[in-house]
């Protein structure tokens, strides 16, 4: 009897070890906090904010080998305000991402709340200025840059395998409306090329209104183009988009940036303009970063924007940094970012 129990125990241990060899779960996150001095519309203020270069977050990601080159994958990621401890993304537990799917030689198929394909074009084009859509980046802050949802719910995304640097993705985000299948749905796509020092991408998004009234029976549409090039001594990027809302309002943002590395430090410059008819807004920013280690860095930022008919902000995390008509806004900030 004892021998049988021992054999069963050893079998269970072996089964657990085999499972551990084919599946893994990783806890990860970022804590990013900065102090900023703002001056907007003639009024000065000082704030401690979370999410300067990167939004503070924690998450779990996992994979399981299913054999034959196929894997099950999942990501559960929640944002939080590192200055107050509050939940981000409107109080959602996993407001940044929450999806499950499969990947393999065919590419990947994922289901849940996840980034729209157009987001990756915006993010990669912005990589030449401190990373992906920082609190001061014109790509994320200036009016009209996101005509569609950044992280759509109920999204089904197919992404191709990497074909010599060329990839593509298609998305259908279900509106789950009783009015009809197309109501409140979002379609998205991208085509990207990334090889060596070159990156280029095109993003597209079409988000239907709820179709309940004449004013909501159209679509918010977004087309974006982004490119970067690493020259070795510096890397530069450009981003351009055309947005059109259901109401027919068009905005056209254009952003250019360059970053120069100095060992463990980097200095970046970004200039931008967004237009809507005769109205426009202009902005520029200077960012400096220094790596204290592989996981921790400190940074400083100065950004400024001018409202010439379109609202703009020098700090996307605080409302007091929004410039009124024909007024300007500026922000100076210092912060610390740690990855785990």
Please identify, by name, the CATH architecture. Beta Barrel
Which CATH class is shown?
A: Mainly Beta
Give the CATH H-level superfamily: Porin
Strand content: over 45%
Number of domains: 1
| Largest sheet, spatial ordering of strands | 1-3-4-5-6-7-8-9-10-11-12-13-14-15-16-19
The biggest beta sheet reads: 16 strands, antiparallel, barrel
Which structural category do the helix and sheet elements fall into? mainly beta
Which of globular, elongated, flat, extended, rod-shaped describes the shape? globular
| Straight-line N-to-C gap | 48 Å
Describe the structure.
This protein is mainly β and 340 residues long. The chain has one domain (46-339): Porin (Beta Barrel), CATH 2.40.160.10. It is 10% helix and 54% strand. It is built from three helices and 19 strands. It has a 16-stranded antiparallel beta barrel. Strand 17 (312-313) and strand 18 (322-323) form a beta hairpin. The radius of gyration is 22 Å and the shape is globular. The relative contact order is 0.15.
Properties at a glance:
340 residues; mainly beta; Porin; two-stranded antiparallel sheet; 19 strands; 10% helix
Helices and strands, with pairings:
Elements: H1 2-22, E1 23-40, E2 43-50, E3 57-67, E4 70-79, E5 97-104, E6 107-113, H2 117-125, H3 138-141, E7 155-159, E8 166-173, E9 186-195, E10 198-208, E11 219-230, E12 235-244, E13 250-262, E14 265-276, E15 279-291, E16 296-308, E17 312-313, E18 322-323, E19 328-339
Antiparallel strand pairs: 1-2, 1-3, 1-19, 3-4, 4-5, 5-6, 6-7, 7-8, 8-9, 9-10, 10-11, 11-12, 12-13, 13-14, 14-15, 15-16, 16-19, 17-18
């Amino acid at each position: 009897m004892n021998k049988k129990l021992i054999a069963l125990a050893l079998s269970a241990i072996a089964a657990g070890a085999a499972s551990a060899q084919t599946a893994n779960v990783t806890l990860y996150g970022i804590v990013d906090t900065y102090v900023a001095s703002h001056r907007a519309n003639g009024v000065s203020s000082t704030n401690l904010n979370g999410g300067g270069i990167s939004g503070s977050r924690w998450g779990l990601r996992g994979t399981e080998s299913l054999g034959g080159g196929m894997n099950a994958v999942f990501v559960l990621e929640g944002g939080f305000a590192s200055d107050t401890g509050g939940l981000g993304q409107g109080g959602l537990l996993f407001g940044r991402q929450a999806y499950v799917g499969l990947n393999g030689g065919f590419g990947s198929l994922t289901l849940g709340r996840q980034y729209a394909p157009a987001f990756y074009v915006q993010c990669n084009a912005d990589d030449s200025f401190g990373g992906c859509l920082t609190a001061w980046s014109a790509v994320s802050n200036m009016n009209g840059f996101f005509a569609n949802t950044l992280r759509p719910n109920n999204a089904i995304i197919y992404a191709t395998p990497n074909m010599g640097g060329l990839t593509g993705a298609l998305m259908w985000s279900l509106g789950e409306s009783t009015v009809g299948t197309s109501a409140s749905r979002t379609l998205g796509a991208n085509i990207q090329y990334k090889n060596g020092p070159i990156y280029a991408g095109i993003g597209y998004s079409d988000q239907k209104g709820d179709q309940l009234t004449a004013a909501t029976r159209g679509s918010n549409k977004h087309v974006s183009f982004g490119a970067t090039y690493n020259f070795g001594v510096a890397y530069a990027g450009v981003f351009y988009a055309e947005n059109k809302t259901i109401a027919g309002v068009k905005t056209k943002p254009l952003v250019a940036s360059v970053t120069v590395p100095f060992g463990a430090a980097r200095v970046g410059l970004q200039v931008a303009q967004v237009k809507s008819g005769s109205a426009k807004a202009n902005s520029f920013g200077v960012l400096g970063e220094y790596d204290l280690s592989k996981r921790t860095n400190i940074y400083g930022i100065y950004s400024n924007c001018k409202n010439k008919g379109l609202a703009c902000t020098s700090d996307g995390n605080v409302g007091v940094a929004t410039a009124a008509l024909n007024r300007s806004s500026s922000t100076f900030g210092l912060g610390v970012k740690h990855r785990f």
